[in-house]
Every structure is written in C-alpha cells, then in structure tokens.
Write a structure and sequence with these properties.
4-stranded mixed sheet; about 15% strand; AcylCoA_DH/oxidase_NM_dom_sf; 3 domains; Butyryl-CoA Dehydrogenase, subunit A, domain 2; 10 strands; 4-stranded antiparallel sheet; flavoprotein; FAD; Butyryl-Coa Dehydrogenase, subunit A, domain 1; alpha+beta; binds flavin-adenine dinucleotide; Acyl-CoA_dehydrogenase; single chain; Acyl-CoA dehydrogenase family protein; Butyryl-CoA Dehydrogenase, subunit A, domain 3; globular
C-alpha cells in the first residue's frame, strides 16, 4: 500500500530479525517488570537504538526519522511489548535531551543511550495528574549553580531501571524540563503498579534533589515546546506499535481458523469467521498505510503534521483493539486461555489507547483544530 524505500526495508529486516530472536522468550519478557536481559541483549546487539539518537552523538541519522522508528516499532511489537517499550522509551525518554540539552550533557548521555548502556526515562505524570499536565505540582527552583527539585512522579516507564529521567516541573509561573540522573541523592524510586499488561513502572519521589544548572533542558518555562517536539516525532511510532500488535493478532486468528474444523470444514470457511478475518485484514492494512504516510510527513515537518500523527495514533490503536477482540472471538474458548499468545496480545493492546495521549484527549484536541479551520 505504501512503498518503503530500500533504506527503510533494510532497517525493517534488522528489526524483524531482532523480533524473531526474542520470539521464543517473548511471553516471559512480556511478564517482566524489570529489564529482561534477553531483550536488552538482542536490541543492543542489533544497533537499532542508534536510530533514536542524532548522528552527532553516536546515533544513525542526523535528524531522527519517524518512519524508520515506526517501521522498527511495528516489527518489535509484533513479537513483544517489552521489546517495543525498551526501544521506544530510549527515544521518548531522551528526545528532550537531544533537542534542548547543554552540549556537555548530550555528550555525557546520548552516546550511551544509542548503545543502550544508559536507559532513558521521561517523568511527566504525577499521582494526581495525568492528561492535564499543566496541573503538575512538582517544583524546581534555582539555587546558585544548582537546580532543586521537589515532588512526585507516577507510572513512569523504566522507573527503577533508567539511568536518568527527563522530568517535567513547575518553575515560577511556567513549566520546565530537567534531567535528573537516577543516582542523584534525594531521588527515591519504588516499584509501580502491577498492570494487566506487565510493564517496567516506577513511582519517583524527589526530596530536595539537587542537580547542576546545566541539567536544565530547553528554555526556562517553555517545557511544553520540548514535549510537543517529542510527540511530533514519537506519537506516530505508538501507532506503529498498534499495527504490529494487530498484525500478530490477525496472524494468530488466521492460523487457528485454517487449522480448526467445525461442522466438517475449517473455521475460515464459515461466513461469519471469514468476514471477521477479512475485516481485520482491511483494518490492519488501512492502519499501516495511514501510519507510514503520517510518519513520512512527520519526517519533513514534525510539528506541522502533528494532527496526522494524532489521527494515526487514534486510528491504529483503536483498530488494534478491534482486531485483537475479533481474533479472540474467532478462536472461541482457545482465545480465552490465560498464558496463550492471543490472551497476551489482548492485554498488551489495552494500554496503547491510554498512554502518550488517550484516544479521547487526542480527539478532543483534533476537534478543536478542526473547528479552527485545520484540514
Ligand atoms: C503502561 C503505561 C506507561 C506509562 N508510562 C509513562 C511514562 O513513562 N511517563 C509518564 O509521565 N507517564 C506515563 N504513563 C502515564 C500516562 O501518560 C497517563 O496514563 C496518561 O497521560 C493518561 O493519564 P491518566 O491515566 O491519569 O488518565 P486521566 O487524565 O485521569 O484521564 C482518564 C480518561 O479520561 C478521559 N479524558 C481525560 N482528559 C480528557 C479530555 N481533555 N478530553 C476528553 N477525554 C478526556 C480519557 O478517556 C482518559 O483515558 C504511563 C501509563 C501507562 C498505562
């Protein structure tokens, strides 16, 4: 539907190889709430994390390419949500450093992010604040050559595993971003909630955490600009994860419908089953075409095409939910067995519609853009 060029096909091949290596232990990895070293080693050896860091700091591309990132996440998610998160968070967690960090800070961390020798985290959400990030209460004040952070962050991916957290804070009347190394005194980290789709999650407490002034990211009071730039590159890559998951669910259901017989014929010959599979195939192809196109547009002008990235995220993650639900139905009682692959996919599909912009939040902002004349 959307022709990938030879460079994108090459990186897709590498990502598919990593996914295939992880496949034998994917179920185990997707239960992990700490770093799964099989996934880490496979990803590190592939060199794929270099695509989330600018070339000047050990990365692959001068400017990050959302289509490359999308193609990689689609392939990784096909196999394992843990693997996909490990790759995605290296980019999401470090991008405000790439864009807004002081030179020496970038030199210190980004080459390690590219080789997975440092794990990145992004700390925005708080116990009482999710979608409405302007309501955060974590504060930062300048004190001589240092910045002092106080507050709490919640549901942070890689919490406890990350080497640094790019952290959103209130500063005077605005919102700022600061990089806090995990080893900084005063930063306490506890294990986060257990989710239906297990995930490395941490709860962070900042008690008079002091970092040097050069750990500030971006312009004081202008953190939302940094976050917008991060979303403009990475939101569409979550959509790609949805496509990878949907493809895996469709493949699982198809295999079952081809091999199981009822009423003297394979399930796939029953009209209602074949309709479901064909509908899912249509949904997967439509989502993939939309995601690739939105990612290609995001490469040329990420902020200018954020609406399309938001639409792609809504469309692909909602499609993934429908495809995986139809797949469970197609598999009958076998789709309900705890520990089966389709059950894992069913659970892994659910968070995609909540994090990095819940569906309703994205639709709300798209509606406002539509009313203002966007098209
Ligand atoms: C697996 C996982 C990993 C995460 N990792 C991170 C991380 O690394 N860093 C981080 O900072 N956070 C992380 N989060 C938190 C995530 O960003 C929040 O869950 C998300 O922003 C939504 O916030 P909330 O859950 O508090 O929902 P709420 O803000 O309480 O919203 C609940 C629901 O209300 C509706 N809603 C809310 N606002 C609107 C609106 N304006 N218009 C219409 N409907 C609306 C939506 O349906 C939404 O799902 C993670 C969450 C999960 C599940």
């Amino acid at each position: 539907m959307f022709d990938l060029g030879s460079e994108h096909r090459k990186v897709q091949e590498v990502a598919r190889e990593v996914a295939a290596k992880v496949q034998p232990f994917a179920a185990e990895a997707d239960e992990a709430v700490t770093v799964h070293h099989g996934c880490l080693d496979a990803l590190r050896n592939s060199g794929l994390a270099r695509y989330v860091v600018p070339a000047a700091y050990g990365g692959h591309d001068e400017v990050l390419d959302p289509l490359t990132l999308a193609v990689v996440r689609e392939a990784l998610m096909y196999s394992s949500a843990h693997l996909d998160s490990m790759f995605g968070m290296q980019g999401v967690g470090s991008y405000s450093l790439s864009v807004g960090g002081a030179e020496e800070l970038k030199q210190e961390w980004l080459p390690k992010v590219a080789t997975l020798d440092a794990i990145a985290g992004l700390a925005l959400t708080e116990p009482d604040v999710g979608s409405d990030l302007r309501a955060i209460t974590t504060t930062m004040v300048a004190d001589g050559d240092e910045l002092v952070v106080n507050g709490r962050k919640s549901f942070i991916t890689n919490g406890g595993a990350a080497d640094f957290y790019c952290t959103l804070v209130r500063e005077d009347e605005g919102w700022s971003m600061v990089l806090v190394p995990a080893a900084t005194p005063g930063l306490g980290i506890e294990r986060g909630a257990d989710l239906m789709a297990p995930h490395i999650l941490g709860e962070l407490t900042f008690t008079d955490v002091r970092v040097p002034a050069n750990h500030r990211l971006g312009v004081p009071g202008k953190a939302f600009s940094l976050m917008l730039q991060t979303l403009a590159v990475f939101r569409v890559t979550v959509a790609a994860s949805g496509v990878g998951l949907a493809q895996a669910a469709l493949d699982e259901a198809k295999q079952h419908a081809l091999s199981r017989e009822q009423f003297g014929a394979p399930l796939i010959e029953l009209g209602a089953v074949s309709q479901k599979l064909a509908q899912s195939w249509t949904d997967v192809e439509a989502a993939r075409a939309f995601v690739y196109r939105a990612a290609a547009l995001a490469k040329s002008d990420p902020l200018g095409h954020l609406d399309y990235s938001s639409m792609a995220k809504v469309h692909a993650t909602e499609a993934a939910a429908q495809v995986v639900d139809r797949s469970v139905q197609t598999m009958g009682r076998f789709g309900l067995v705890r520990g089966s692959k389709i059950e894992r996919l069913y659970r892994n599909a659910r968070p995609l519609r909540v994090y990095e912009g819940a569906t309703e939040v994205l639709l709300d902002s798209l509606a406002r853009r539509l009313a203002k004349g966007a098209r």
